[in-house]
Amino acid sequence: MKVLVTGGVRSGKSLHAEQLLADSDAVTYVAAGPVYDDADWASRITAHRVRRPDSWTTEETHDIAAVVRTATQPVLVDCLGTWLTAIVDQADLWERPIGDAEIHVKEQVAAVAAALAETTQTVVLVTNEVGLGVVPAHRSGRLFRDLLGIVNQRVAAECDEVHLVIAGRVLKL
Q1: Domain containing 24 — which CATH number?
Q2: What is the pTM of this model?
Q3: Span 60-88, mean pLDDT?
């Protein structure tokens, strides 16, 4: 089973994703965002760990495809929005031509989609729904929105279900 959980900021989407795997003894939780020295990021990871069972392991990585491909237990990926930001940062694409960013992101998400298609493990992926959110009206904001739209559509195509979370309420699409 593959599930994409989407919603706005602070909608309850991460909590819902965790609840989907609550009956699993062991889960690999992928913190798919910045893996550099960032106090805010470290604080967020710590806060999420408090909610999860001790039997869950946390892996901080940008290589979602590798984790999914080699998984021997359910995987929860949180969050594709922070993952996107990290891979665009790594490739220094914020100020480059939009076409360069699209090519790079499509390559990265193709690897994730292929891993999702191959795995037999349950995978739950959390993402931001940019179609509903407020996106800054500057170039980077528009680029993020457009790229995350590409990521969300490609990942959703490999998922069995998509859940939209708004104010803690879940709508299965």
Answers
A1: 3.40.50.300
A2: 0.91
A3: 95
